[in-house]
Amino acid sequence: MLFLLAACTSGPSGDGSSPTALSVEAVTTVSEGDAQGAQWQGQYQTEIYTVSCEGVCGPVQDGFSTVSFCDVGERDTEYLQVEQRDGLLEVEVNDPISFYRGGVYRDDSLIIGGYATEHGGSVEMTALVEGRFEEDGLLATARSHVRGTVELSDGGTVSLDCTGSYELEGVWISELME
Hints:
Elements: H1 24-28, E1 42-56, E2 60-61, E3 66-67, E4 75-85, E5 88-93, E6 99-104, E7 109-118, E8 123-134, E9 137-151, E10 157-174
Antiparallel strand pairs: 1-4, 1-10, 2-3, 4-5, 5-6, 6-7, 7-8, 8-9, 9-10
C-alpha cells in the first residue's frame, strides 16, 4: 500500500489529474510553503482509503509474490513521521514511497510529493498529496502514478501504467522521537 493521500485539484503542477502533474520532476520539486514554526511536527496514525484506479495496475505474479499497485476499496493504516521547519514539510512512512517533501502554508494547507522505484528501477512510482492540517490531525487527498515493466516468473513481462486516487485521515499521536 502506498502512502497516498485522492485527486489533487491544484498545486505546483496544475490540476493533478494528468500524468504531467505526476511526473518525477513535478513531485520532487514541490515548493516550500510560507508557514512559520513547527506546529504540525509529530507522529500521525493515518487511515488510507483507495478511491479509484485507472489503467493497468495488476495484479501481476512476479515470481516472488502477487503484486497489485492499486485496489479500489482497500483500507490501510500507516504511521507518518512529519517534520516541519517553517514552510518546509518532510514526511517519512514505511512504504514503497518512503519520503515526501514539500510545503505547509499559513492557512494550514499542505502540498507534498514523493518518488520511488521498485523491481530494480524498472517501475517508477510518483505521488502528489494535497490537504490541510486540522486541530488534532490532517485530512488529505492524493494521486499516484505507477509506470514501468515487471518481469514475470515465466520470463515474460507486463507493462504497468496505473493512476490511483486516495483519501487520507490522520490523527496526531505524539511528538517525534529523537
